[in-house]
Every structure is written in C-alpha cells, then in structure tokens.
Model the fold of this input.
Amino acid sequence: MTRAILRPSILAAALAVSGLPAGAFDIRAMTPEESAAFGEAVRGYLMQNPGVLMEVIGELEAQQAEAQAAGEAELVAANRAAIFEDGHSWVGGNPEGSVTLVEFIDYRCGYCRKAHAEVADLVQSDGDIRYVVKEFPILGEDSVLAARFAVAALRVAGAEAYKALHDGFYTGFRGEVTEANLIRFAEELDLDGTAIAAAMDSPEVERVLAENHALADRLQIQGTPTFVLGDQLVRGYLPEEQMRAIVAEVRG
Done:
C-alpha cells in the first residue's frame, strides 16, 4: 500500500505561509501563481528544517524496500516447486528440516567462497535446516565446466560424492579449471573422475543447468550467491549472524 511522502507538518506549514486555505487544498486546481507560492513555501520550510528531508528520504526508502520484498515474495510463491522441490538439486543439512535454505552458487565466485564456511556452520550448528544448492555458473567457461562436473558427479556417484566436490571446489581445488585437473581432483577425493567427466556433456546435465538458469531469470537473480529463505530472496553475501536472524524470522 502506497503511503503519502509529503508529511502533514510540511503541508500545513506550506499552506500557512502561502496563504492557501487548507480545507480547499487541491494541488491540481492551483493557478500558476498559487502553485509558485506553494512551491516557494515548501522550499522555505525545508530550508529552515533540513532534518525533515532525511525523514522523507528514509520513508521513501522504507516504502521501496517494502514494495521490493512484496514483489520478491510473489516471485518465490510463483516458483515454489522449482525452488524447493526440483528433484535434481543436491539436498544437504537436515532433509526434514523446518526451514529450507536454497543457495544459487558459482564455484568461481569469491563471495560464494567467503560464504561457504559460514553457511556450512549455520546448517550444521542449527541442525534443523534443509540446505539446497543450485549451480548457477555465470562467471565464464571455468564456472560452467566446474558446474557441469559437480552436477555430473551427483548423477554418477551420488550425494556424498557431490558434497565432497562441492566443498573441495572452495577449499582444496587449485589451478586452472580443465577436464584433466577436474579428473585429478576427483581422484584425490577417491572418486572416479573419468566416469564423472564422461557424463559432463550429457543431456541430463545440460537440462539441470538450463532449468537453474531459467529459474534464476524468473526470480530476477543476476549474481551469486543468492539465497532463498522462506519467501525472501537474499541477494549477495551476508555474515552468518544475519543469516541466523533471517532463519529465526522465517521460523516465526
């Protein structure tokens, strides 16, 4: 619901200074002379009370944030099944958790790397969070190759293999992202890297990444990390304590 930005105190002061009757006030019916007098009165009041401008700006920002939150809640509601129950994303934490945390990630994203340890600690220490990861490679071919390898690992070797690679991309992988290096890295984790690499270009892997990108487009997601918690979209990195506060808010 839109609220009036012009505070009653400003309006009353402007009308008093301009000599216009408050009861008959209609800005659309003003003559040019009345409009000029009113504008000058408003300007004079604000020049004498500049702190009011900060209050007006704060109110405008609050209205904009409220409208954005409502719009994003509608986006989440319209895409709920694809966000929370797509059937192809890795699910960690507590699969029966009372709160689901969804994260769109890019393995080459520095802020995803920064958030990784804090998200892992949040999920583990809370114990009641269902954690869903969606690969959303947007930072070039290296990102796409890493995402394909991770998705293929989930399909070929299962959830534990995926988690090992997912964690490893942030903590242990070094060097250029090439197929050979990915295979080597997988084998360091006691996984069959060759079998995973063979599935990287499969139609199933292509479908998963295409669906993730289509979902991100519908949710107007343009960067990583982006989180979905309840009906909220959290765009960008947040410190762990702020994430905990949102989880508590979602639980009510």
In short: DSSP finds eleven helices and five strands in the chain. The longest helix spans residues 51-78.
